[in-house]
Amino acid sequence: MFTNQGIQPVNVVFNNVKNCFLYLPPKLISHLSLNENQALELSWANESPVFLSWAQNRSSSDQDIHKVELCRQLGEQLGLKDGEQGLLRPCHQVSSLNQVFVEPLSADDWEILELHSSALEQQLLDQIRVVFQDAVFPVWVDNHTVIYIRIASLSSSVPYGRLEQFTELVVSPKIRAGTGNLGDSLERFGHNQQNSDLSSSEPSSHSTSHIPQSQQWGGIGDLKSLLRYLIKGTYDPVKGQPPVPNIPVVFSDSIHRVCGAPPDSLCSINHIAAGVVHLFPWDPHLNASGGQSAVTYGLLSKVLSPKEAKDKTKQAMEKKKGASVGKDGAAVKGGEEVTTEEAEVVRVVCHVPETLTDERRGHNKGEIHRGRVWIPQPLASKLKVQPHSTVRIKPVRSTIKVALNISLQPLKPLSEEDDEEIQTAFLSWLHTQSHEPLACLTARSSSVLLHGSDAKLELALTVLKPEAQSDPPDQLFLLAPTVLQKEDIQVDRQPVAEPEVKAEDEASDPQLPSLCTLGGIDEHIRTGMEFISSNLLGSPLSRQLCAAAQGLRGGALLITGAKGSGKSVLSRALCRKAREDLDAHVQEVDCRKLQGKRADTVRQILQDVFEQAEWRQPSVVLLDDLDDLTHTPTSPEHEHGPEALLQQHIAQNLKDVVDEAVLHSSLVCLVITSQSEHTLHPSLTQVQGSHFIQGFVNIQPPEQAQRAEILHHLILRKSFLSEETLRTLDLGAVAKETEGYTAQDLAVLVERAIHANTTQTGQSDHGACLSQRDFVAALNGFTPPSLWGVDLHTPSGVGLERVGGLREVRQQLMDTVLLPAKVS
User: Fold this and answer.
1) Phi, psi (degrees; rounded to nearest 5) at 527
2) Residue 435 pLDDT class (50, 70, 90 cuts)
3) CB 33 within 8 A of CB 21
4) How many CA atoms lie within 13 A of 36 on its CB side?
5) Distances (CA, A) of 804 to 335, 427, 815
6) Quick check: 79 and 47 in contact, CB under 8 A?
7) Strand 39-43, strand 50-56: pairing
8) Which residues contact residue 214 at a Cβ distance below 8 angstroms, ignoring those fewer than 6 apart?
9) Stretch 54-78: mean pLDDT, rounded?
10) What is the C-alpha to C-alpha distance for residues 760 and 774, in angstroms, rounded to an integer?
11) pTM of the predicted model, to two decimals?
């Protein structure tokens, strides 16, 4: 009868958990439509109702929908009996409490509370979330000792409320009779509070400033002044120096590779937080074991690649020449720009920190990076750091200073929030962060994300005082809630002018096709990915078995096929798969664009490509249509001609560049495409001590089933085609009529079918639906691109139709001639 009003009858059963949450079965949670931070009202018999927070009971069965569980100690304090029947009602409005006055039940409870204040500060919110007036709650200290506290009053004048990170807990001492006077106890407790405060966050400066001088030590006029005075002692949080946390040194000065995408272990972490980077070991399988992460700070700067260093040196030399006609000092200034690196102090989360601190883990031959690092996009854009580039991270060793005055400036124009709302939001954010000491550290300039009245506010934070006086690059400042007040926070409503990002600074990853858009080549995809993965040590098995043949030591992968067979699309899709699964950098070279260039120019281009690939390793280098650049001589008389000598020099240059990369033991995989193995220059395919090419993928003309699968994927790629096309179209019949067609021929055929459909039916808002008639029209008079320019010989003379009789002989001749061609 009560369920329609949101009231549910329940049986309260005691358990032995060490918190004050009411445990509900999943069906009851769903039935009441409870939110995570919602409070519950429990009433029974003629007793006053109580207000509790809830948690899900994962061990309850489906039949126990009316069974709720509560801690035995709390149930006894509330006057409940084991198995008591009551009514449960959700509370739709729960206020967050700014201040709660509590008192221990006994002197023993007070002494335990005084000794373990730091531990309770961290554990209290894990035990109690909802409190109400005059309630007595059990609190566990270090999971084995229980004390009892009574809620004396709530500052918000509400019957119940929720504890938050910023809630101030004011405790009244319970002095044991005959153990000294009150003044000694106050002095002792005030001294302890300078080192460890029970409040989950420090109170504001006006918390003690309004207490009259006559009420200190001489006489106390009201209860609230007594409680506040007892918990704070004579310590002035504004004038006193807050405790400065120590920054742990988790890693040494080293360089790391920037991840192109966040690792899998960051799926459950808020990795988009600005100014927070994540360090991982170089071997991905070491991070798979999980483990505890360590938080510290570091000075992050971009490391220029060899090509970037050369370009910057060249620009500096040009500036120096231009400045030589002016003052000498200007020329020196131009030279300094070569070594200047923009650095940023960042918060660093170290995953598997023992791999970063273990100095015995030396670099293997060919390894450039100590580990991997994930940098959020805002910070990466600020430092102009591209994916797969290299950064240097140094541990912070400077002395932390306390920020006395700060400035907040919006990154985007403000709408309705006034200065006081921004100051209040910042102080609330600072209170929520104060339970974690390292979270309140900042550089001279940083950014902070606040929750305003209607939307999120992203603000630039600048420390104004203490002023900059030869501060080191890794200088950090402590944002202390006991020091910063509203008058210390300046709000500049003028948005920050963001620098324009130049086109050359943006990431230039090539646009590569996806393997899911290709059909009929599943076996080729599997072979190609196995080769690339083993070369780049992408799996635990390859790291154990293929370490001696890593990178280019395992040879190159050659993908061959006729023109239009899809070898270029397959190779580029394999590169994309390696970039997604192995986080590999991709360097693509279209060899057709290098035709006609000098051998020295081609060698320099290849050296730059492989140098960049080694710097950003693991990498995949794709040389597309290499036989157009280094093809085999067409005839014996051309073997010693000028073109043949050029081809030989280019082939030798390629081998020299690859041999140099082999000596470095770099994680680089080489993928080559050509029409066949025999169209490449013989020096690349002949065995001369070692195989230059050790992996082969040969794309044959597709069979009928493969052609049907290719047509299926080609139609799926056309977003404007309706789903009805694949349900009604007989792709097997179309594939039967396309004997000998390559993948490119089938792509052109689908385009012709779409054109035929549009000509006959016109445009449709629901998408075009291809039919068998459209493909018949497309095949009519169609010459596949693979046969363009081919002179097809038409036999002359008498045909079999002129032969009378001999039907069995004619059929045997037809089968002998045509069947081998159809099967192949």
Assistant:
1) -65, -45
2) low
3) no
4) 0
5) 95, 104, 19
6) yes
7) antiparallel
8) none
9) 83
10) 9
11) 0.64
